[in-house]
Design brief:
Strand content: 5-15%
Helix content: 55-70%
Number of domains: 3
CATH class of the largest domain: Alpha Beta
Length: 601
């Protein structure tokens, strides 16, 4: 909405109006004194004296009068004094100066129509004074008299025209630029404090609003962070426009359920934060259940499941700050994502200890690679029909001098987080290829060996040369090497990975799709890429005896692999019963503790 800048100027003037009135009163008193000592009727001095008193009284009660009326009264009184100055003492210069002053005040502080009306009245007043002069004054040369007044009136009109035009041009120019500046500031403020897509407060604004609530209400509270896990999937399969709609739908759910004691924000690309105060933990869980229920309905409408990492941290008014609470919540989110925990996870001190250990490992990994603390263990893939080794998978192990044995489930995510996947991946490629001769001696010359390549590493085209050089260096037939990738990698960067996998296939390297069945678009990728092997994820193997759905899914994967002429391997097989069910379904290649644990060469 366009602002009324003239009104704003009047309001600003109103703050100093008392001073203006007092100064006007002093000027009126001084004029009264000048008229009193001059050889004119004392009535004119008395009128100025009354005007001075009026200004002083007016200044006392000015706060009770509207600003426009105060300006008009000031202009009228100024005009009256100018007339009296002329009639009473013939002070033509005072008359003109005060008349000019009245018009300047009108142009500066009143609307255009009001100021023009005053200017017209002023011109009329000058003409009236000219005719009045001819009645009371006797001049030898009347033509000179008319010429003098005529020039004064014309000069006054010229002044008014120029002043009106220039003053209003300047005012309009200033108002337009002020308006643009304010819009620019508003846009800057919006960019600084609000998310452009959802219109929700961003982290900066969220912090300000929450701290205001904390200061005002002085209550304990909770901070929830919801991280939309499925956003990358939606973007890659349905497009970024659909991903944006998903974020807006999530916002709509939050706003629909928002209550007075809550503050909502989009604090990251796929992250929403909600602040609650004055509720119990039980009420928090109830609210969370309500939110998730509505989000599931939204998933149904979108025909695409919305999945979230969801965490919370408690805020204690007596001991915490917003930064403390937000740090705890983000630490909990980091832990939930690294461990793939999808339940509503609260912050606890143990999480902080885990993350501190992670920070410690970050400092040790680079040194560990240089010092040769990493090595490869090999787990056999067994053909259950003959119980002979079909192939092996190289699995990284780390025996740190500082902290001892560290699980790959712990150090692999840390390597990813510190952008050392390339260095570590190159180590795995070189070590596995250098071990090939020893693997042949142990398992036979036709042994195949597989290695896992991280998502960020496989996207780098340099990996093709690294693998090619290593195969040539150790004189390994390319079809003895199997590169394993996960389906999540395809979801996150299919176009980049597709070209690199195509070039690896041109080298005659084999490609395995690991964790098959855990993603959303497995069939889509099977139709677009040339895989040699599928690995059924352990999560389905664990449920093969207890879950009819897992049984059916595994059966379908096996039948599908036969139609695509792919080898299918069940990983994570730990019991005889699991092996027997897989054998019955026609899956004979087994990897797991039932037959073999990872071993050093």
């Amino acid at each position: 909405m366009k602002k009324n800048y003239e009104k704003l100027i009047q309001e600003r003037l109103d703050k100093d109006f008392t001073i203006i009135l007092r100064v006007a009163g002093i000027v009126a008193f001084f004029a009264a004194f000048m008229l009193f000592i001059s050889p004119v009727s004392k009535i004119y001095a008395f009128v100025n004296l009354v005007a001075g008193v009026f200004f002083l009284i007016f200044s006392i009660f000015s706060n009770q009068i509207h600003t426009v009326y105060k300006i008009l009264l000031l202009i009228i009184v100024t005009g009256v004094i100018s007339v009296i100055s002329f009639i009473g003492g013939g002070f033509t210069s005072a008359f003109l100066i005060l008349l000019v002053l009245a018009n300047i005040m009108a142009v500066l502080f009143l609307k255009s129509i009001q100021s023009r009306t005053i200017s017209v009245l002023s011109i009329g007043l000058m003409v009236g004074m000219a005719f009045y002069s001819t009645k009371v004054e006797s001049y030898v040369e009347i033509n000179d008299y008319y010429l003098t007044w005529g020039l004064q009136i014309i000069s006054f009109i010229l002044f008014l025209v120029v002043f009106h035009k220039s003053a209003y041009s300047i005012k309009n120019y200033l108002f337009e630029n002020i308006s643009k500046l304010e819009k620019s500031i508003e846009n800057s403020d919006r960019l600084a404090y609000f998310d452009d897509l959802t219109g929700l407060p961003n982290l900066n604004k969220f912090k300000i609003e929450v701290e205001k609530r904390i200061e005002k209400n002085k209550k304990d509270g909770f901070l929830i962070i919801l991280n939309l896990k499925s956003l990358s999937l939606i973007n890659s399969t349905l497009g970024y426009a659909t991903g944006d709609l998903a974020l807006q739908d999530v916002r709509d759910v939050f706003l629909r359920l928002k209550e007075e004691h809550e503050t909502i924000s989009r604090t990251g690309g796929n992250e929403f934060s909600i602040w609650f105060e004055g509720i119990t933990e039980q009420e928090l869980y109830q609210k969370f259940s309500l939110i998730m229920g509505e989000l599931k309905k939204q998933s149904f409408l979108m025909k695409k499941k919305l999945e979230f990492f969801s965490v919370y941290a408690k805020f204690t008014y007596e001991s915490d700050t917003f930064e403390d609470c937000y740090r705890k919540a983000t630490l909990t989110l980091t832990h939930a994502k690294s461990k793939r925990i999808y339940e509503f996870l609260p912050y606890n001190n143990q999480i902080e200890l885990i993350l501190r250990r992670k920070e410690m490992l970050k400092d040790l990994i680079e040194e560990g690679l240089k010092e040769g603390e990493f090595e490869l263990y090999y787990q056999a893939k067994i053909d259950s029909r003959t119980e002979k080794v079909y192939g092996v998978e190289g699995l990284a192990r780390w025996n740190s001098k500082e902290v001892g044995m560290v699980s790959p489930y712990e150090f692999i995510p840390v390597i990813e987080s510190i952008n050392m996947s390339h260095e570590f991946g190159d180590f795995v490629i070189q070590r596995a290829c250098s071990d090939f001769i020893s693997l042949q001696k142990k398992y036979g010359k036709d042994i195949r060996f597989s290695i896992n390549i991280s998502p960020s590493h496989i996207k780098d085209e340099a990996i093709i040369k690294t693998i090619k050089d290593a195969l040539e260096k150790y004189q390994i037939p390319p079809n003895r090497l199997i590169v394993e990738i996960t389906e999540n990698l395809l979801i996150e960067g299919f176009k980049d990975v597709k070209e690199i996998l195509k070039k690896l296939k041109e080298l005659n390297v084999l490609i395995s799709l690991d964790d098959f069945g855990t993603g959303y678009s497995s069939l889509n990728y099977l139709g677009q890429l040339e895989f040699d092997e599928l690995k059924i994820d352990k999560i389905f193997i664990d449920q093969i005896e207890s879950s009819p759905l897992s049984y059916i899914l595994i059966d379908n994967i096996i039948q599908l692999s036969k139609k695509f002429n792919l080898e299918v391997i069940a990983e994570g097989v730990e019991t005889k019963e699991q092996c027997e069910v897989l054998d019955k379904l026609g899956c004979y290649l087994i990897q797991g503790f039932y037959f073999s644990k990872p071993e050093k060469l």
